[in-house]
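User: quick one, sequence for these tokens?
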């Protein structure tokens, strides 16, 4: 019997995009779809949750969300699974020098995964939410350690707000070796303390940055933690640094680490009811201000007689610093400033060190910034198109001199409408192949905001291979706001988006979603670009019973037999089985014990040398 791969727990919920593509939401992964195991202060224009400060009881740690963006389960997708024939012994399967067994096949379904699908190996159906035990827990910044652990930083409504940090294992579960059950909260000075940025040092120590003191005297805030989540007393005062730039309201929205260990923080500074300006500070490794940067460690930059706010920062290989955000008002534009290593404006960047870009006359704000390997600068945020289009994902690419790159989008600009009223990109990353990933949010009638991830080709056009025509949206609980605030790429290319999700009436939780960046056509859990046989799912078991003459020829849906699959997979593949003395030793022992015959021994050794197993 060959079972159909289908959903038991709930029927698929279909939502039609304006472009005509269909997005599928399902309750949990299909019950039958088993996979054979293998190997702050200054509030910006993006939506924010209700800032209520009552505690709620009985909810803490990580919980699995109920719903996520899914495609329909495939009707016929199978992977072989071993079943022992009566009276036969189970022998270990051969894989790259190991031995397989004389078995017969039964079938369990497994569904191929497409580019842009949620990663079913992460959390529940690709989604994770975490409740710190307060009314609102807001994730703002994301970083991935070299060992694959994921950090999400933000703040929680601990009355007043406290800095909040969660660390997850690669499978999405909370890391029990970090803080208390994977969670850390830090109260700096009994006022609102919020984290908006996070960075990981090469030695594993963690720096978060944001603001403290709101709503009175709000200052720059940096905190450094050891790898276990404890405060690092060698940084600032007991792990905490606060910096007053001489204004009333100041906040860090982005940080970057220099190769020499110094920390660059970027945000804004506002005096009283006056205009906000770009504000940067550079710190030594011990948390002290670097007096060789700007004015005793800080730099203030004004573009216009209006608000100028830096939301992102990058450091070029030559040590120059690019800060980006918005400038002007009441309809701000993309604003970028580049500084020399000493904090002075770089006159080789559009003559005065500053670049302003207007899309269509409406409000345009940069939230994310990254560098391509060739030195070009890519910014992401939103642009206001007016009318029913509202706000759209917006990208701009600049040459190293600050000029727009005409080879990207339309004259250097790319605006994307996903068919909703408000869409904004908040995080950006560039894949090794040059494709650009942007995460953020978009609204849907009746569902408010959903996580939204889009992928662009290097020329600025949407990548049709990703999701539904280049983008996906993910709803965690079908109601309330789910807002992606950051994105990061794992070493294996998978895309992690982080932010916050609706957790019930007036409740918000940390949220993560992980997406596949490459397809998995055979559903074996190995991305196609790492799979020697991407169209074959024979990794679970190869059946050998007399090898060439007695392989069980189970029929595949498309008409191929098992031996056909082996032959096709073996052609040109690099990881053929290798006959080893270990295999010879095992087969000799089995022959002597009477488990196999001499003919079977020869067949197994022949297949060990010839068969390919992906």
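Assistant:
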């Amino acid at each position: 019997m060959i079972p159909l791969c289908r959903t038991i727990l709930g029927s698929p919920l279909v939502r039609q995009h304006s472009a005509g593509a269909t997005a599928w939401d399902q309750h949990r992964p299909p019950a039958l779809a088993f996979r054979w195991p293998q190997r702050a202060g200054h509030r910006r224009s993006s939506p924010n949750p209700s800032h209520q400060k009552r505690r709620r009881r009985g909810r803490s740690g990580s919980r699995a969300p109920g719903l996520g963006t899914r495609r329909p389960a495939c009707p016929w997708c199978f992977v072989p699974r071993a079943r022992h024939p009566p009276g036969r012994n189970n022998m270990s399967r051969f894989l790259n020098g190991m031995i397989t067994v004389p078995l017969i096949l039964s079938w369990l379904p497994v569904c191929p995964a497409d580019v842009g699908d949620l990663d079913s190996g992460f959390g529940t159906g690709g989604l994770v939410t975490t409740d710190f035990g307060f009314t609102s827990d807001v994730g703002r910044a994301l970083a991935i350690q070299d060992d694959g652990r994921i950090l999400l930083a933000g703040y929680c409504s601990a009355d007043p707000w406290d800095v909040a940090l969660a660390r997850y294992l690669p499978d999405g579960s909370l890391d029990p070796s970090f803080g208390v059950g994977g969670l850390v909260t830090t109260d700096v000075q009994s006022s609102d303390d919020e984290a908006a940025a996070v960075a990981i040092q090469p030695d594993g120590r963690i720096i978060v940055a944001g603001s403290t003191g709101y709503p009175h005297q709000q200052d720059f805030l940096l905190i450094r933690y050891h790898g276990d989540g404890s405060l690092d007393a060698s940084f600032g005062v007991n792990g905490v640094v606060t910096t007053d730039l001489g204004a009333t309201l100041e906040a860090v929205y982005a940080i970057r680490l220099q190769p020499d260990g110094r920390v660059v923080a970027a945000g804004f500074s506002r005096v009283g009811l006056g205009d906000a300006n770009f504000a940067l500070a550079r710190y030594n490794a011990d948390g002290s201000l670097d007096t060789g940067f700007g004015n005793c460690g800080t730099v203030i930059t004004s573009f216009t007689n209006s608000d100028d706010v830096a939301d992102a920062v990058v450091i070029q290989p030559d040590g120059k610093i690019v800060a980006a955000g918005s400038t002007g008002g009441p309809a701000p534009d993309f604003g970028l400033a580049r500084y020399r290593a000493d904090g002075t404006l770089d006159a080789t960047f559009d003559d005065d060190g500053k670049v302003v870009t207007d899309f269509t006359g409406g409000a345009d704000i940069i939230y994310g910034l990254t560098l391509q390997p060739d030195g070009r600068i890519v910014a992401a945020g939103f642009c206001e198109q007016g009318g029913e289009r509202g706000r759209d994902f917006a990208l701009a690419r600049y040459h190293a001199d600050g000029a727009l790159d005409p080879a990207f989008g339309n004259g250097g600009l790319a605006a994307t409408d996903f068919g909703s009223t408000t869409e904004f990109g908040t995080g950006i990353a560039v894949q090794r192949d040059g494709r650009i990933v942007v995460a953020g949010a978009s609204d849907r009638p009746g569902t408010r905001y959903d996580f939204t991830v889009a992928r662009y080709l290097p020329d600025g056009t949407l990548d049709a291979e990703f999701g539904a025509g280049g983008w996906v949206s993910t709803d965690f609980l079908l109601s309330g706001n789910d807002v992606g605030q950051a994105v990061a790429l794992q070493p294996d290319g998978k895309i992690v988006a982080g932010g916050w999700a609706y957790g019930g009436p007036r409740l918000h939780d940390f949220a993560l979603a992980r997406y596949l960046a490459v397809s998995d056509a055979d559903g074996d859990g190995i991305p196609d670009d790492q799979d020697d046989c991407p169209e074959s799912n024979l990794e679970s078991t190869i059946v050998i019973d007399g090898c060439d003459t007695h392989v069980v020829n189970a029929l595949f849906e498309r008409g191929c037999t098992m031996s056909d699959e082996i032959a096709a997979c073996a052609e040109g593949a690099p990881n053929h089985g290798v006959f080893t003395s270990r295999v010879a030793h095992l087969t000799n022992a089995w022959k002597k014990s009477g488990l196999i015959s001499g003919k079977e021994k020869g067949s197994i050794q022949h297949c060990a040398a010839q068969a390919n197993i992906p």
